[in-house]
Design a protein that fits this description.
alpha+beta, SH3 type barrels, five-stranded antiparallel sheet, elongated
Amino acid sequence: MCLGVPGRIVTVWEEGGTVLARADFAGEERRICLAYLPDLAAGDYVVVHAGFALTKISEESAQTTLAMMHEYGVLPGAPPPGSPA
């Protein structure tokens, strides 16, 4: 089973003609490829599969999803401050 944990893009750069990014997934940063969504920028929220950003989502949707994942124990720890209860 694959969980679609929303990630927030921290930084974007180009490497060898490919747009890459570092994204924060509930406190864990990962390098991702933005080949399918090259216009994303720092601060945007995405859903990633196999290292590729597939969908841009709103911050509200990302925060709601993360809060629910914390509530149901899918993600460790408490939800970030300011996220929906």
